[in-house]
Write a structure and sequence with these properties.
about 550 residues, mainly alpha, MetI-like fold, 26 helices
Length: about 550
């Protein structure tokens, strides 16, 4: 006989594999099928919800425009002591000249000015003015080189001097009328060693001409900045006698002549363009916002600013955002409370009426959803005016004197009234769905045990409806805290929300970084309140019926 307790090995499936492996494989297939079913929803949420939030959070700290547009200037400013009260040394102004020249050719200087203007008023016009006049500095050297020898006027001569032999051969063989792209410019290695600054600037010029302006490099005259760089390189007295390529004789001639050239003092030249370039605060702002990432947007969002000495509060007359955040939270809570007070009785009536009557009345609750939000808000704008329907009715009833009509529009009162009407259905529906599940027999049982109508309602019915109040409150509060159309139309100056300011910075001032910071703070506040609600009330107690 065989001992039944003896180990006979793992149980096998019909396909010869172990039963455990077969079950695991079946579970993996089941999970994969489930994942494929929800994959479209996950992708939709990722693209339309997670990605925009991530982009918003990044924009609130991203600050690469300063260092990307003024790379040489920001690098030279690293060693400048802004607390000394003196303007930066001449080499910083030299770097600024190069950066602003390149930026104005690429039309980036105005964007940079707009960015820094958020931090210091007047910087935008400063960069626009400098972009128009910075070329004059380089033309001083350009005119002298061209007067010295006509060789320096010809773009093809510059190409022969700066370009490699391989590129020159490809360039000469290229037909401008063909559909093929112009050969990408390549520097001559000898020139890089002899004229490093000229080579760097000319390579930027060539790349800009070929790729951004899509012009023939052989027919395009170099920037005036190239001549400035050429002058600086020749003043260092490189060993040009070792060079025997195209333009060797002309380069020797130029090096001998540059000692007598008229020069440009960039520090004084920028002051001639605009005296603000000698304002230390301008340079402190550039230095402060040189890093790729900044906390400046978040500081601005809480009425602070990033200065050379660290974060500090803005003047009282410039503080607005904390007040808007407090106003938004307060009015959202008031609107939520108003919706509870008005929506609870309506939901109770609907839940306790016969089904046919309740369904007919439910149409009145849903009717606002069939009307445009803009139309409903505009209607309230008409009704709440001092000569509107509500004031006319109050005057007709004798409740208000004709010369003392109520101010119900362009203030917080108008915003609360209009938004309560708009968001009321979002409170009634969750309440109704919960109340519908409360058996009427509970109230009858309480009354049969001696409870009054009020006691039966307060101690039996109301506690069971609290989950509906929680669901409706969260829905109404989150919707109201982010509303901007209704406050914009009926709120005036005292009834607008922080969302209106966010919309302004996105569509009008184009300060997307500040808008992103305000949005991130608003998101953090909502999540914080949601967390507090979960700890105090418990999110498990929130339900929509059932």
């Amino acid at each position: 006989m065989t001992d039944a307790t003896q180990d006979s090995g793992p149980m096998m499936a019909a396909d010869g594999t172990t039963l455990k492996s077969s079950l695991n494989r079946a579970l993996r297939r089941q999970k994969l099928r489930a994942l494929m079913l929800i994959a479209p929803l996950l992708i939709f949420v990722l693209v339309t919800f997670i990605a925009p939030i991530a982009d918003m959070l990044f924009r609130s700290v991203e600050n690469q425009i300063v260092s990307d547009t003024l790379p040489r200037t920001t690098d030279a400013l690293k060693d400048w002591d802004s607390s000394a009260g003196d303007i930066p040394p001449p080499e910083v102004f030299d770097a600024l000249y190069t950066d602003v020249f390149i930026a104005q050719e690429r039309k980036l200087h105005t964007r940079l000015g707009s960015r820094l203007n958020y931090e210091l008023t007047g910087v935008s016009s400063l960069f626009r003015k400098s972009g128009r006049k910075v070329e004059d500095m380089g033309e001083v050297y350009q005119d002298q080189f061209e007067d010295l020898n006509p060789f320096w006027k010809d773009a093809e001569n510059w190409n022969a001097l700066m370009g490699s032999d391989a590129w020159l051969a490809a360039q000469n063989a290229w037909d401008p009328k063909s559909e093929t792209a112009q050969p990408a410019f390549e520097l001559r290695e000898e020139i890089v060693g002899l004229l490093p600054e000229t080579a760097e600037v000319f390579e930027i010029f060539a790349d800009f001409t070929q790729n951004e302006r899509e012009r023939n490099l052989a027919k395009t005259d170099p920037w005036a900045l190239v001549y400035s760089a050429f002058y600086d390189d020749l003043r260092r007295e490189p060993d040009v006698s070792s060079y025997g390529g195209s333009g060797a004789a002309e380069m020797l001639e130029a090096m001998a002549a540059v000692g007598s050239f008229e020069t440009v003092d960039t520090t004084a030249a920028f002051a001639d363009i605009d005296k603000d370039w000698h304002d230390v605060e301008v340079w402190q702002t550039i230095q402060t916002y040189s890093p790729h990432f900044t906390s400046g947007y978040f500081l601005n969002a809480v009425d602070m600013k990033k200065s050379a000495d660290g974060p500090e509060m803005r003047p009282d007359n410039e503080q607005i955002y904390i007040k808007l955040f407090v106003r938004t939270l307060f009015m959202s809570l008031v609107i939520t409370g108003s919706c509870i007070l008005l929506g609870y009785p309506v939901a109770w009536i609907l839940a306790n009426l016969p089904a046919r009557t309740a369904n007919l009345l439910m149409i009145l609750v849903l009717l606002p959803f069939w009307t445009s939000l803009l139309v409903r808000t505009s209607a309230w704008k008409v009704m709440l005016q001092q000569q509107g329907v509500i004031n006319d009715t109050l005057v007709w009833l004798g409740l208000v004197a004709d010369d003392s009509r109520l101010a119900l529009i362009n203030n917080q009162t108008g915003t609360i009234i209009a938004m309560t009407h708009i968001l009321l259905p979002f409170m009634i529906l969750p309440l109704y769905s919960v109340m519908k599940t409360i058996p009427p027999s509970y109230l009858r049982a309480a009354k049969s045990l001696g409870a009054t109508n009020w006691t039966a309602f307060w101690r039996v019915y109301f506690p069971q409806s609290v989950p509906g109040i929680g669901a409706g409150s969260i829905l109404v509060f989150i919707l109201s805290i982010g509303y901007y159309i209704t406050p914009e139309l009926v709120g005036g100056t005292t009834g607008t929300f922080i969302s209106n300011r966010i919309a302004y910075h996105i569509s009008s001032s184009l300060n997307w970084g500040l808008a992103a910071a305000l949005g991130a703070i608003l998101l953090a506040v909502v999540l914080g309140l949601y967390w507090a609600y979960d700890k105090i009330v418990g999110i498990d107690n929130v339900k929509l019926g059932g």
